[in-house]
Backbone:
């Protein structure tokens, strides 16, 4: 009985009914567009969320440029650059996964998703090495913060004000910490996408969750593209 | 309708690899530019490269280039517009304020 009624519904539409197409959408294209529009609106709110932090960063950087440069130069730009490249590679594997699912290439889809997860964990691993170093050097804002006798770049004989350097490190930890939280959520999303792909949930017609998850991952990549030069590369010229 | 579905799949593997290489090159260029003394232009150069990289990701990896939905373009443009308002009006305040 259920089979015959399903056929009847399909015939009343005058076409074969795709089970992935929900009833309130006219076409698969409209369903895909609606999903990605919703995700872009969410990303718009995320831009404003991070935008407030970028604004705070901009104000204090202009006000205390010397201390921001001195504090920034305690970071390792080599580690920051490595992490930027790791994230760019993970973005490539995300588009490869979507390219693969649209063409029904299961092996490439699964290996791209696994690579994305490996790159995500590599990013967090490098970040945790950097955080550990900050704790060892007492560069974490709070009662144990130390930044005494650090010369101001470009001002021989002058020392950086530790209170102003602490502002830099507060922004550093909030911005990279929030970004790392987004990475952790992204890894959770992609672990689920890998699980669902493994069980063959996505087809050449229906792969919207992969595209939506990909939009989120690329957005987190874009945030890091701005964080890297702003936090790691202040006034490096000799 | 058929136009939409063809543009959806228009990005080729070659485009993705080219964008990926451009992003890697942009990252190296940012680091090199940061080590050259450009005076006050160091920050401008770094932000310009970052914006080009962000545009590459948005247009090609996030498929904004082939987007057919006008509403989606409106969302993206208004996001950038409101971010600009946030930064510009805040800077107009703090830039003209006398700090103790």
Residues:
């Amino acid at each position: 009985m259920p089979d015959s009624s399903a056929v009847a519904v399909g015939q009343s539409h005058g076409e074969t009914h795709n089970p992935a197409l929900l009833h309130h959408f006219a076409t698969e294209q409209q369903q895909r567009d609606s999903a990605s529009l919703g995700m872009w609106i969410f990303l718009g709110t995320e831009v404003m969320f991070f935008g407030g932090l970028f604004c705070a960063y901009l104000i204090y950087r202009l006000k205390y440029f010397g201390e921001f440069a001195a504090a920034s130069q305690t970071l390792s730009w080599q580690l920051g650059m490595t992490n930027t490249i790791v994230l760019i590679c993970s973005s490539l594997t995300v588009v490869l996964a979507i390219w693969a699912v649209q063409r029904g290439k299961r092996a490439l889809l699964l290996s791209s998703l696994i690579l994305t997860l490996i790159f995500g964990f590599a990013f967090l691993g490098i970040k945790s090495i950097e955080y550990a170093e900050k704790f060892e050097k007492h560069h974490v804002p709070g009662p144990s913060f130390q930044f005494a006798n650090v010369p101001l770049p470009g001002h021989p004989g002058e020392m950086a004000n530790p209170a102003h350097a602490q502002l830099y490190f507060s922004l550093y930890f909030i911005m990279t910490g929030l970004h790392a939280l987004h990475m952790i959520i992204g890894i959770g999303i992609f672990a689920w996408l890998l699980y669902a792909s493994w069980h063959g949930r996505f087809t050449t017609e229906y792969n919207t969750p992969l595209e939506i998850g990909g939009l989120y991952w690329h957005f987190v990549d874009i945030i890091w593209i701005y964080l890297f030069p702003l936090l790691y590369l202040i006034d490096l010229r000799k | 309708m058929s136009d939409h579905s063809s543009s959806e799949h228009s990005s080729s593997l070659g485009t993705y690899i080219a964008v990926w290489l451009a992003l890697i090159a942009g990252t190296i260029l940012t680091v090199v530019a940061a080590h050259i003394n450009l005076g006050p232009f160091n920050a401008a150069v770094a932000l310009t490269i970052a914006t080009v990289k962000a545009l590459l990701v948005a247009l090609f990896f996030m498929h904004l280039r082939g987007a057919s939905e006008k509403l989606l373009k409106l969302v993206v443009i208004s996001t950038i517009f409101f971010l600009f308002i946030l930064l510009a009006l805040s800077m107009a305040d703090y830039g003209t304020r006398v700090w103790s």
The domain at 43-232 of chain A is CATH 1.20.120.80 (Four Helix Bundle (Hemerythrin (Met), subunit A)). The radius of gyration of chain A is 24 Å. The helical segments of chain A are 2-13, 28-63, 65-72, 77-102, 106-136, 162-198, 208-232.
